[in-house]
Structure formats: structure tokens, C-alpha cells
Amino acid sequence: MRNTCVFCGGEIEHRTARVIEEIGDEIIVVEGVPAGVCVRCGEKEFTPATIRELERIRRERGKITARRAVPVVEYGKLAA
Ligand SMILES: [Zn+2]
Q: How remote is the CA of residue 42 from the centroid of ligand 1, in Å?
């Protein structure tokens, strides 16, 4: 993995990240994903092995039992 961001040239820090996957109308949240994260713009980079694992998780998402309620709002419609 590179040490600088391809987009902004910022430094890449190796840590774990939260990945939000959208599959049609479905959304899954994957926590603790090993990633290179740009300290400047937040861009995330993954190794090919991590990308394969994320693809496997998408395919096998039916096995995920944990649920979390998330706020959902239509843009520009938040009540004052
Ligand atoms: Zn960057």
C-alpha cells in the first residue's frame, strides 16, 4: 500500500475503519476493516485481500444477525 493519498497527496495512516456497503436499498455496516486512511481527506484504501473479504461479507450478508437503528432523513426535510 502507498504511503501517500492518490487524491490529495496526504499521509496514509494504517488503522481500522468502518465501511458502509450499499447493496440496492440494503445497507450493511462493516466495523474494524483494516485500511489505509488519508489523514487529510479521509480517503480509504484497502488491500486486494481486504477487498475480497468485503465482497465475501456482501455475499454472505444474510448471516449477519446484529442490527443497529440509524437516523434517516430526507435532504432538506429536517423539522426545526
Ligand atoms: Zn487524501
A: 6
Widest distance between CA atoms in the chain: 46
Domains identified in the chain, total number: 1
Please tell me the distance between residue 35's alpha carbon and the centre of ligand 1 in angstroms.
13
Tens of pLDDT, residue by residue over 68-80, are: 999 999 999 987 6
Cα 74 to middle of ligand 1, angstroms: 29
Q: What is the pTM of this model?
A: 0.82
What single-letter DSSP state applies at residue 10? Answer: P
4: helix, strand or coil: strand
Separation between Cα atoms, residue 37 and residue 5, nearest integer Å: 8
Write the CATH number for 31.
Answer: 3.10.20
Tell me the C-alpha distance between 29 and 13, whole Å.
21
Q: Rounded CA gap, 19 and 29, in Å?
A: 6
